[in-house]
Amino acid sequence: MNKSNTCxxxxxxxxxxxxxxxxxxxxxxxxxxxTNIDRSFADADQQYQLxxxxxxxxxxxxxxxxxxxxxxxxxxxxxxxxxxxxSLLYIYEQTKDTVLYKETERILKVLEKEKYNKTTxxxxxxxxxxxxxxxxxxxxxxxxDILITSAKSLASRFNSKVGCIQSWDAKPGEFLVIIDNMMNxxxxxWASRETGDSAYYKIAVTHANTTMKNHFRADYSSYHVIDxxxxxxxxxxxxxxxxxxxxxxxxxxxxxxxxxxxxxxxxTKDRQYLEQANHIAGFLLKHPNLPADKIPFWDFxxxxxxxxxxxxxxxxxxxxxxxxxxRYNKADQAQLYFxxxxxxxxxxxxxxxxxxxxxxxxxxxxxGVGHMPKGSEVDVPLTYxxxxxxxxxxxxxxxxx
Length: 401
Description:
Blueprint: H1 3-20, H2 31-54, E1 60-65, E2 70-74, H3 83-95, H4 98-111, H5 123-137, H6 141-155, E3 158-159, E4 164-165, E5 175-178, H7 185-195, H8 198-214, E6 225-228, E7 235-239, H9 251-268, H10 271-285, H11 312-325, H12 331-348, E8 368-371, E9 376-380, H13 383-398
Antiparallel strand pairs: 1-2, 3-4, 5-6, 6-7, 8-9
Helix pairs in contact: 2-3, 3-4, 3-5, 3-13, 5-6, 5-7, 6-7, 7-8, 9-10, 9-11, 11-12, 11-13, 12-13
């Protein structure tokens, strides 16, 4: 082979290699926003030290009612119990405040017994957002054991005929699955890796596939609840309990789906999940009722838009999800997700949504909406809103490192 042919071959090899290389999109962080995020973590530290004083013994924060000054807490078996220790750990990672870490250790001991709880689908929220984070920061054999036991408890609710994990216990002949359940699959993927038992992985994938088939409408909006026949696996009814109407797009339900299918792609690298997440993101970002500041109304079809209440918790989940989803996409689409999340963080960190230190019962964010049809937790802080806000802040900071 002569010199010119050798050079030509080398050029072809380089060109082919370059064509096969997929580069992670470049995201430029805003130095001013990064400074604001550090300040937000410092403020969160002070807020959660206030919350520690408000918290009844052996209970977990739920919400705070500004008009009455009432602080509402719950027992460890309520679905939000894992967000308090998770938030403490997100703050501790940034501020290194050992007071918060000691509080985490205390409250985890209260939460531990829920590893045996087979009456709830929310063990991912409860145990992985708490013990999962604790194990990632300071691994301990007991944390691993607790998480594996929790995964076994969660897996016990799987019905192979339906192809889903049961969400809410119901009367005979009903098998209820809610879109929120996508968030609990992360615990199963972790357990599969740690134990080498593929059963956890298969349950998570089967649940996600069944949900993708039955929960979503043609425009990629989602129902809240699907009622299956537990014997045949057939869909009996589709409804939306926490939204405006059965056919409406309840905001937090939509972002549970966005986050859930983003993590499904991360864990499996199956492109059908990436496509699903992108379709959900498209529904959200192109929706005519998405406000300019990107913090959604509590339901995209609320009848009193533009005067309807916003849901800061849905905004926090959405921002965090987009900051992961942008990693898996290219060029303009990736930048759209990143810039949208950046704008949402700015909005949530403004005085409109972020509480003044010493107020709000110690919670960070204001203006969450829990269950509007029941009039429960309306226009108040929500513990999971804080958790996903802190996660979004951390994810944004990670792009600067």
